[in-house]
Design goal:
The protein has 318 residues and is an alpha/beta fold. It contains twelve helices and eleven strands. The termini are far apart.
Amino acid sequence: MSASKLPTVSIIIPVSKWNSNLDESIVHCCKLDYPDYEIIVLPDDKFEYNDEKVRIIPTGHIGPAIKRNMGVKEAKGEIIAFIDDDTYPVSDWLSNAVKNFEDPEIAAVGGPAVTPSSDGVLQRASGAVYESLLGGGSYRYRYIPAKKRFVDDFPSCNLIVRKDVFEKVGGFVTNFWPGEDTALCLDIVHGLGQKIVYDPKVLLYHHRRRLFKGHLKQVTAYALHRGYFVKKLPKTSFRLSYFIPSIFVAFLLLGWILGAKFYFLVLLLYVLLAVVSVVQFNGIRFLTFLGIAVTHIGYGIYFAKGLLARKLKEESED
């Protein structure tokens, strides 16, 4: 595919206000080795940025999903690349992503969001929780480069979609956050019957929330929505892997009924698995160990809350 035939790409970044992470993200986006792209930033209020590739479109105080939908309406590109303000891509991120669209059956592409080594200790420990075998489990590929594969659910912090496909499914639902990306991917794969591919070469870096407060706030929000989506969007959320943390919490509370020896044997096995999972993380092993445990407990509790909820607070009444 020659450079003249490459599709135009619109990179869309929703954000509340200007911040240092956003500055870093735009700087890296402006250095991409791709010939035809634009960067659309959607803050609450107007600010200036001196680069012809960058368009600033103030939106007022609205949610990220609404901002992304607004950005797509303004986009000139045939391909829409969604990232967050706390991410920044490697130079060949777009060129690697666009290669996948040579296959007409590919509707969207996702790639790993890797924790940068420049992050602080508590941020790197948060990232290590997701990267670890016990913490990230079968979804570790979202945080470290792994084998290329097809997926049916992927985060919008690194998701590249054909514009016509995005418009065909009606864009992001706007009454869920987080979770709007799950609904979008479900519409693409199970609604249109098209494919989303995970490509490890479509890599960007993602600054993590700090352990423990910021990390847990994010984890529990995702868990609450995932639990609710078991009922609302079961095709991609009714999966055993999402239930395991809640089963673990239930065991912590009630497992002693099965006998003290069995109870402590299971806890010992969990500790051993956690220790093995953190061996690779030099300097942050203990923090990562604690992070895995509190992540499982927090996720388990809030997944159950979502599962039992009749309606989430941000969900529309109509």
